[in-house]
């Protein structure tokens, strides 16, 4: 999986510059546990890390959206943990989907997944808006408080709706027309210079 913080990337170099070599593993990759311990206990360090990573994440996202658009995909899903916190980004999204679960389940699952104690899990959860608040901003909510099968059914329903949508048909037609125009121009130029 592509990462904007892989060794030798711009973000990796900046993180190293600001946080020192103490946050590196022996193989040069970021030690997520060490960096996480710093940024989730010090809000100003978290803002610093965000200011390094977010522009790089945005650039990569735009590249990938363009790629999938050109490949003809109906829609692209962007998995953005801080979407609602980073105000401004939502205005570029047609729909926003919140995968919700009740707060006790959120805490238990995070502790289990990341091997955290309750205090460390609360620090991470506290670094984001509460899910109840995000619920009000999202255009769609998938409730993942129950079992995976129930979540799967909700996802399939939403997928079917998005697959049927003609939301970006105008953009596809415009891109197709522009490409056809360019192709025609190239053809005329080639014919002109080869005759
Ligand atoms: C800080 C890092 C090293 C922590 O790694 P770790 O494996 O311990 O935790 P993980 O990534 O699973 O995140 C744990 C929880 O914290 C949340 N979280 C991650 N980064 C941030 C952040 N900058 N601010 C608030 N919450 C965050 C995640 O959404 C998740 O809920 C890692 O998240 C990271 O490299 N973040 C920087 C890249 C980044 O900005 N990612 C996208 C967040 S928008
Ligand atoms: N319906 C479910 N039932 C039980 N466990 C679940 C369910 N959904 C997710 N989990 C578990 O909860 C943990 C968090 O899920 P996941 O990593 O998919 O969430 P996420 O939203 O991508 O997290 P983050 O934004 O924190 O990276 C994982 O360990 C996952 O296996």
Automatic annotation (TrEMBL):
Task: Please provide the record's keywords in A-Z order.
Answer: ATP-binding, Kinase, Membrane, Nucleotide-binding, Transferase, Transmembrane, Transmembrane helix
Q: Which Gene3D superfamilies match?
A: P-loop containing nucleotide triphosphate hydrolases
Q: Per its UniProt record, what InterPro entries does this chain match? A: Depp_CoAkinase, P-loop_NTPase
Regions that span the bilayer:
169-190
Q: Name one GO molecular function term.
A: kinase activity
Does this UniProt record's set of keywords contain S-adenosyl-L-methionine? no
* Entry superkingdom: Eukaryota
* HAMAP family from the UniProt entry: Dephospho_CoA_kinase
Listed PANTHER family: BIFUNCTIONAL COENZYME A SYNTHASE-RELATED (PTHR10695:SF46), DEPHOSPHO-COA KINASE-RELATED (PTHR10695)
In terms of NCBIfam families, this protein maps to: dephospho-CoA kinase (TIGR00152)
Q: What is this protein called?
A: Dephospho-CoA kinase domain-containing protein
Task: Please tell me the species this chain comes from.
Answer: Willisornis vidua
The uppermost taxa in this organism's lineage are:
Eukaryota, Metazoa, Chordata, Craniata, Vertebrata
Its gene is: dcakd
